[in-house]
Write a structure and sequence with these properties.
This protein has 182 residues and is of the alpha/beta class. Helix content is 40%, strand content 19%. Helix 1 packs across helix 6. The model has no long low-confidence stretch (mean pLDDT 95).
Length: 182
């Protein structure tokens, strides 16, 4: 079986975050996938730093991971009706690298949040922020895990619940989308 390289980006830096659990579940539910978790704990974007020192090594690693992946899944929390600042910072830095790593890349957006909307506003804002990079954003099924604190046991989604079923379908579609551009 050919191994599928899936890059997972969590919009939360916290190791135990529900969004980190959700990208791991995405990797588990995608048959034949090797999940690599991206590190977005990057310095704040500063044009003066870029002009003086160039692209930081950690940013280049992230851009290279995006370029090398067959597909990317991004899971974001919802902070103040949008996606996280660390995720925005990562997008800004990667946009400054050579080669347009997002262009044409199959990408699925998912979210987990404590609220009842499951991060819907964060996903919509993230979709808008991704548009200039011209990825192949999947339109659904939408996976927005509401009341995330009640949906995971030992890092795993409740079996046979709508979230797990929807995530499995989304990962199957992401893999099919990647096959179209391979």
């Amino acid at each position: 079986m050919i191994q599928f390289n899936l890059l997972g980006i969590s919009g939360s830096l916290r190791q135990g975050s529900f969004n980190r659990h959700l990208i791991r579940e995405a990797g588990r539910l995608m048959e034949g996938a090797k999940l690599t978790e991206a590190d977005i704990d990057l310095p704040l974007y500063n044009g003066d730093v870029e002009d003086t020192h160039g692209i930081p090594a950690k940013v280049q690693v992230l851009a290279d991971q995006i370029a090398a992946a067959d597909a990317v899944v991004i899971s974001t929390p919802e902070y103040n009706q949008s996606f996280s600042g660390v995720l925005k910072n990562a997008l800004d830095w990667v946009s400054r690298t050579e080669g347009a790593p997002w262009k044409g890349k199959p990408v699925a957006l998912i979210s987990a949040a404590a609220g009842r909307a499951g991060g819907a506003r964060a996903q919509y804002a993230l979709r808008l922020a991704m548009t200039p990079f011209r990825p192949r954003l999947l339109m659904g099924p939408e996976v927005m895990v509401a009341a995330a604190q009640d949906q995971f046991t030992n890092g795993k989604l409740a079996e046979d619940e709508i979230y797990e079923r929807s995530l499995k379908v989304l990962m199957k579609l992401l893999k099919a989308e990647a096959a179209l551009v391979a």
